[in-house]
Design a protein that fits this description.
The chain has helices spanning 32-40, 60-68, 78-86, 120-130, 160-177, 189-192, 194-215, 236-244, 248-251, 264-267, 357-360; strands at residues 24-27, 48-53, 72-75, 94-96, 108-116, 134-145, 155-156, 180-185, 221-224, 257-260, 271-279, 287-289, 306-309, 313-315, 318-324, 333-338, 348-351. It is α/β, with parallel strands linked by helices. Strands 1, 11, 12, 13, 14, 15, 16 and 17 form an eight-stranded mixed β-sheet that branches. An eight-stranded parallel beta barrel has the order 2-3-4-5-6-8-9-10, surrounded by five helices.
Length: 376
Amino acid sequence: MTNCPDFSALPLPPLNPPPAVTPRHVLHPDLLGERLAVIRDRFSGRRVRFAYSVKTNPDPRMIRSALSLGMDIEAITQAEALLAQSEGATPDRIVLNGPGKWWPRVDRVVCKALFANDVREFSVIESLRSDGVDLEAQTVGVRLTTAAMQSRFGIAAEDDHALSQAARHLKCLVGSVAFNWGVHVHHAQSACGTDAWIERCADALAGVGVLSEAVGTRPSLIDFGGGWRANDLQAAPAAIAQVVTTDSELLADPNIEWEFEFGKALVEPLGVVYARVLIPPDANGSTIVDAGMGDMFEGMVSPHRTYLWRDEWVRVPVGGATVYGRTCVEHDVLVRDLDTSEFRFGDVLAFGDAGAYDVALSFDFTNGQVRSNWFL
């Protein structure tokens, strides 16, 4: 298997014996603290907060576990923020990010921080406030990016004109409502590797100096986004330390709070999808199971450790076969590159590393159901 992360050190499927009814998605929010402990105490001497990403896994049990661990909550919509608050999150622990933070429309927005996705969003903020929307935030900031990130989100650190516009808006907001200001940078380490992440993150944060000079003060908050591979989580603090060395006088200022949202790196190992073999392997080893793309959507793009039940869980070795889902969709792929030669009709399989977007992107498909509250 090429370019496959090594998940061998992460938790094994914990259900022993497996569930009687499949497919079944089992989450283990009680293990979130173990994941957070990997990096929690690695930033001594800093004002550091950790945020739980609702979009990555919106299960209420995970949110409650995150809150019990003292984590903030990152939301990308008002719906996510309201979900977090219904589970006990206070507004001063909510960070709003992304382009959809004003959906659905509400009359009052209270949060710890919100980050404008680009310059256009400042006009949206002004319009909302003019329309009577009450906005209370400890920090208002901008998302920074760089050309190498090739992202549709954020203001490029190379774009002096856009940075100047953002600084003007920030200065106006800070002056009118006494907000602090900050910046957010997000780039998927899982897509580019650690070395490239360090370089691109540092390049994006070069915009902080430009903004600081234009606004007249330093930011109160620097928010580092998620996208880390689960098995690389322990390397994140050292990588961030290297980013800081690119402008240690500014970025290492102890008065600037750091917020970390490690997203899928925290929760990916905490979910398991259990399934049974519906159709045994063909001549090429291709197998069909009773789970499908609606149960484990990321199977098409992300590797999942796979185990076979033989009175105990046995890791399925690498091979040349593909495990397909139950639907008639050609791209319903759950796992690639497995040795399925031992699979038999009715065998139980466990697909690990399904605790992140496999949860957020799951949907009813071939269950004889449609989404509730979707049609008028």
